[in-house]
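USER: Fancy drafting a protein?

ASSISTANT:
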Amino acid sequence: MSDARRERIGLVINPTAGKNTGARVGREAASLLAAAGHEIVDLSAMDGAHAIARARAAIADHSVDCIVVAGGDGMVHLGVNLVAGSDIPLGIIAAGTGNDNARELGLPVRDAGKAVERILRGATRRVDAVRHVTPRGDERWFLGVLAAGFDAVVNERANGWHWPKGQMRYNLAILRELGVFRPIPYVVEVDGARHETRAMLVAVANGPAYGGGMKVVPSAAFDDGLLDILILHEVSIPTLLRVFPKVFKGEHVSHPSVEIVRGRHVRLEAKGIVSYADGERFGPLPLECEVVPGAVSVLT
């Protein structure tokens, strides 16, 4: 994007992101982009499905030159699903609670002014994205980390509750799940190599972090053409409680029960597990996905 040419910016805002920070930061970003002489095409909607429909229509009829999302990792996830595999650049106004993908990409967080400065510079970075094809033949994408173990089970339980709100709901879901959680029998296939194991956690990482700063796979990079698959093999619950907090500094990877396998194509099998990617409900296992190098152009 360039200040010298009037761009049509398709803007999608999640007003509730970051405890309603998304609305404020999104409006500020819109004002700054408009003040720089660009046309703002508001694609926000009552929910993600309607926003995706509006944005896809705008892209299809060439009424926008780029897509800018304002919110947390869920909005980045939405943006990636709009532009992956195309030349439409994606701008990110990070205004959520976690903002892991934006942070790991080196983008400003909760600062509309700095985020807009980056977008206006027009520099882009090609990054990998991960593609999953549903049984119906639809493509779904994610940018950061797909969770398919204890972390996904906690997410699924928490999302089934309407109270309490915010982080406390997840804290209570963790406590509830610890009392009943058992190691999960998995089949993990990486580039055709089959691994059968009982594990506490399996994560497929294109980026290093999730969950608000947890460095689940510190070695993962957005532009190396590879996925890093972390397997925390069967351990006791007390050991899980000792190991899991180390994820915030990435120190858990030195534990002997942690294994990291790298590859381009992954198939996960496990009964009763619903995976989450970029913090969003993604789909039940079994599930296959593959990394697509350079699939997304991010305005950096």
User: Anything to note?
Assistant: The mean pLDDT is 92.
